[in-house]
Structures are given as structure tokens and as C-alpha cells.
Design brief:
- This protein is an alpha+beta fold and about 80 residues long.
- Helix content is about 35%, strand content about 20%.
- It has three helices and four strands, in the order E-E-H-E-H-E-H.
- The chain has a two-stranded antiparallel sheet with strand order 1-2. Strands 3-4 form a two-stranded parallel ribbon.
- Helix 1 crosses helix 2.
């Protein structure tokens, strides 16, 4: 899924609408990674999904891409 953008930022109004339609049609799987839109994907999901829907209504997958981390201690803050 490509996120709707307003300049360099995610269009949160449009993205929230997309999530609502997606969820209404019975879908619940969302996938992101820190590297997507330089971390903006994760922030947009926080605002448009996790702040608006109960945790038991969706599956959220986030990947740790090794090129962003040099050691295990670099990863810990992301948990």
C-alpha cells in the first residue's frame, strides 16, 4: 500500500479514511518498517490506526531492517 502524501508528510486524513474502508471490508493486516518513508509510516500508523482502533481488531507487523542497526543495543529503543 502506498500512503497518501501531502508534500513530504503522510496525509493523515486520507490515510485514516483508507484504513476505515480497509477495516470495514474485513481486512486487518498492516505491515510497516522503520525504513518506509524514513519512519513516517510507523508514525502515521500510530496516529491513523493504533490510536483509533482497539488492539484486538488489527494485526500490525513491523520489521527491523539490519541496515539501520549496528548492534543489538541500537535495536532495543524500538521495542
Amino acid at each position: 500500500m502506498r500512503l497518501p502524501m501531502l508534500g513530504g508528510d503522510v496525509d493523515e486524513t486520507k490515510f485514516s479514511e483508507m484504513i476505515d474502508v480497509y477495516m470495514k471490508h474485513g481486512f486487518s493486516y498492516f505491515d510497516t518498517a522503520h525504513g518506509y518513508l524514513d519512519g513516517k509510516s510507523e508514525l502515521a500508523l500510530k496516529t491513523c490506526l493504533t490510536s483509533r482502533y482497539p488492539r484486538d481488531q488489527y494485526i500490525l507487523v513491523n520489521k527491523l531492517t539490519d541496515s539501520y542497526f549496528q548492534s543489538e543495543s541500537d535495536i532495543r529503543p524500538f521495542f
